[in-house]
Amino acid sequence: MAKRLLVLFWEMFKIAASVVGGGFAIAAVADDVFSRRRKWTEEGEIVGSLPVFQMVPGIIAAHTAVYVGRKVAGVAGAFVAAAGVFLPSVVVFSAVTAGYRFIPCGNAFLEAAFLGLRASLAGVIAAMCAKAWPKSVAGPVAAAVMVAALVAIGPLRVNPALVVLAAVLFGVATEFARRPEDVRGRRLNSVAWAFPLVFLKYGLMAFGGGYVLVPVYLADFVGPNAPYLQLSEGEFANVMALTQMTPGPIAVNCATFFGFRLGADAFASPLAGVACAFAATLALLVPGAVLLYLALGSLERFRTSRIVRGIIAGARPATVALMLNALWAFLMMSAWTRPPEGGVAFHPVALAIAIASAALVFTRRLGVVKVILLSAFVSILAELLVKYTV
Fold this sequence. Notes:
The protein is mainly α. It has a domain at about 105-245 and about 300-390. It has helices spanning about 1-20, 25-35, 45-50, 50-55, 60-100, 110-135, 140-155, 160-175, 190, 195-205, 215-220, 235-245, 250-265, 270-295, 300-305, 305-330, 350-360, 370-390; strands at about 335, 345. It is globular, with a radius of gyration of 21 Å. The termini are far apart.
């Protein structure tokens, strides 16, 4: 058993350390590794379980690890596999975070590269919204929930966590209101000690991937009135772009970054930053991992539960609203920006990059990482053309 656990950890560690592009990419690679090479699962079994993973809040990569680990070695296997998933992100992105402040962001070409990265993220999110729309906003009720959530998060500035909770409660109430035969199927130094509780909350909100947490991150970490960190919009957008270009799930990389900065700023120590990055990442993963493990014990009953159906019915359109809010945020950080002198600056190249990125990702012509890198190159090329032809 010990040897099998070691192999399980090492395989998950290698997958998380080498796969860029988020939880869905990790699930696809894990399906190949554990079915074709290890023969521990059936071919297509992990990818086929993605709908179940999306029913449970949490990170898709962690759900993949818990699923495989539970099947291979029960509770110990689930724990070991989940550890293999999140350790690479803690190590790699802690290093990225520690070195981020030394990046010469004043350089015109580097600024152009980051502008292209931000624009491509807007396109990626737009493509994901388009893919999620048919299932998540099916029918007038779901559309109404999505619009209400979008208005609440955007113009009304309601906390996204409360919006998701309200949507979930509405979904559950609506499900039970049906006839049974219709159912077929403050500041950093005062809160640093409690920040893992914040990431526990994020873990319970993450239905379907890391992008849905972007509006929550904006509320909690960006701007002069943010309660935990006060990042600028540009710095936040740059960090989000970097999460796409480094191994590990996007949401986990973000948790590592925020945890590191919280710890390093609160205790003025990089070692404290690493410890807090570890704690934040663990707190993000625990809720979903535990819930999925419990759900897998009675999978059929879980799938047909009216409570679960109601949660999904409310969470899906609210998730689309969160992604649309994130899309608008990244467009305002790339295609339309607010320069220090005031007003709004329009960047046609950035808008073109966003549209092209959305098309490429939606049609699967290029992978997400290739699209992001190509966008940075195009933006630098545009800066060169402006510099030497004007």
